From TrEMBL:
InterPro entries: dCTP_Pyrophosphatase, DCTPP. One of its GO terms (biological process) is nucleoside triphosphate catabolic process. This is Nucleotide pyrophosphohydrolase. CDD domains: NTP-PPase_RS21-C6_like (cd11537). Residues 99-119 are annotated as: Disordered. It comes from the Bacteria. It comes from Streptomyces violaceoruber. GO terms for molecular function: nucleoside triphosphate diphosphatase activity. Keywords: Hydrolase. Transmembrane segments: none annotated. Gene3D superfamilies: MazG-like.
Length: 119
C-alpha cells in the first residue's frame, strides 16, 4: 500500500483544476453529480457479472485497468468535493467508523458453562 498523503492529492487536484480555470465548475452540486456518475461507471463494469466473475475481475489486465481508473475517478471527485466543503475525509471516515462500532457492537460471547456446577 502506498503512503500517499491525502492532503497532497487534494492540493494537486486543486492546482490541476485551477490551471485550467475549472474551479468555477467545482461546486458541491457539480462535484456530487460527477462523483455519482463515476461511481455508476464503476458499477457498470460489474453490472452483468456473476458473484464469482466479479470476485475475479482483477485477473483480466484490461478490466483491472478499467476498474482502477474508475476507482481513481471516484476518489478524485470525492477528494475535490471534500476540499470544496472543508471536510477532512480521513477524519470523517474515522468518526463514522467509531459511530458504527458503537452502533453495531459485536455480540457478547456466551459464558462458558461450568461442567461441574450440576454435580
Amino acid at each position: 500500500m502506498n503512503d500517499i498523503d491525502v492532503a497532497e492529492l487534494q492540493r494537486r487536484l486543486a492546482a490541476f483544476a485551477a490551471e485550467r480555470d475549472w474551479g468555477q465548475y467545482h461546486t458541491p452540486k457539480n462535484l456530487a453529480a460527477a462523483l455519482s456518475v463515476e461511481a455508476s461507471e464503476l458499477l457498470e463494469i460489474f453490472q452483468w457479472l456473476t458473484p464469482e466473475q466479479s470476485a475475479a475481475v482483477m485477473e483480466d489486465p484490461e478490466t483491472a485497468h478499467r476498474v482502477a481508473d474508475e476507482v481513481a475517478d471516484v476518489f478524485a471527485y470525492l477528494l475535490q468535493f471534500c476540499q470544496v466543503l472543508g471536510i477532512d475525509p480521513t477524519a470523517a471516515l474515522a468518526a463514522k467508523v467509531e459511530r458504527n462500532e458503537k452502533r453495531f457492537p459485536l455480540p457478547e460471547a456466551p459464558e462458558p458453562e461450568d461442567r461441574h456446577s450440576s454435580e
